[in-house]
Task: structure prediction
Amino acid sequence: MLVDGPPDARTTLVLAHGAGAAMDAPFLQAVAGDLGARGIRVARFEFPYMARRREEGRRTALDRTPVLLATWRDAIERLGGGPRLVIGGKSLGGRMASMLADEVKARGLVCLGYPFHPIKQPERLRVAHLEQLRTPTLIVQGTRDPFGRPEEVATYPLSPAIRLLWVEEGDHDLRPRGGSGGSQAENLGQACDAIARFLAERELQE
Result:
């Protein structure tokens, strides 16, 4: 487990990685570093399949959903329990967190690039559990994200507990189109600004 930010921070944000990139990939490194510098404690962990990839030096199959959820529950327990934590992550990691946020009574949920459906398969939605979600949620999504674009997401019956931040020109990694005049660093900064505000709101509502 990797931890950024002060150990005595009022809020701990727990982030899990996406399907293809580890917990120390540049995207999560940037987010954790930015938020840690703001006084937010950020903890990151890896699913078993990613740990195997490190050990074996080769790509291995993703764990099945029950294993991913069990790993999340273990991380939450190790960090003091859901009521003390805001949970979430990048893509797959955030999706798994969203499936148990209500169960563990998390203080909040932050999803970075939620995979609303597989690429080029908009009919295979992954939103059923999001309709009744009670945990206060922030989803940060790029407007060019192939896993869910604004015009698609606008048609989904999402819970009123979910707040969406659309990052203009961002792809699944919030990277803008070349020539757009923006940068991934700027987009990540915008995402971290929104996350920091969201976490501050959770503290005020304690």
About this structure: The helical segments are 26-37, 48-56, 65-78, 92-104, 150-153, 184-204.
